[in-house]
Amino acid sequence: MTQGTLLSRAVTPSPREDLVELLRPEGCALLTVECQRGVVGPDSALPELAAAAQESGALGRVAQLVAAAHDTGVQVLHAVAERRADGRGANRNAPLFRAVERLPVRQLTGSAAVEIAEPVPVVAEDLIVRRLHGLSPIAGTEVDALLRNLGCRTLVITGVSANVAIPAAVFDAVNLGYTAVVPEDAIAGVPASYTPAMVRHTLALVAAVTTADEVVAGWRRTAVTPSRSSFPAP
């Protein structure tokens, strides 16, 4: 055994046994929430949130998880929030929606703001689910049907924000019968101190809370890694 292998084993945590079965790639999917340039990128409409995602390392860990999912055959879904230029179909029934309309950067369909932000990698096999309304990346979108067609029972949820979209996604996933897994170091909200409080007092009651490293270790432990050519043609 090489020194590098020993070092790798020393620094890479083993997943908890209760996570191993949940994280089997054939029944697991990874959801990134609003990891788009207009939200967490350098020209974000929400610079405080973008800073929290960058400075906490959460966005980098989302990228780590996506890359590991690609390597181990875990399906990746990217949930993107956007709006039509004319605003048709968008909600206006909460202060948040009305505030979004006044922001200098708008998440307009087809614009750079709704592209997946660096350094998160995107490959052809990823599914991108776009929504024009609501708070949740799951309710009223294609996510549930896609997951069921893929045979997914466990959903790893990452991204922003811990204030709104992440808890909405977790609750919706649980209500629909999925087991939600939340890598607490791969989500972010504002203020930064709010995220661990949300995790401890709310998300931990309904989801399996873990870390990005544990999720990656679980996938690698149970994966039968496919080649890219093994994916069925669209």
TrEMBL record:
GO terms for molecular function: hydrolase activity. InterPro entries: Isochorismatase-like_dom, Isochorismatase-like_hydrls, Isochorismatase-like_sf. It comes from the Bacteria. The keyword Hydrolase applies. Gene3D superfamilies: Isochorismatase-like (3.40.50.850). Keywords: Hydrolase. Residues 28-214 form the Isochorismatase-like domain. Pfam families: Isochorismatase. This is Cysteine hydrolase. It comes from Streptomyces mordarskii.
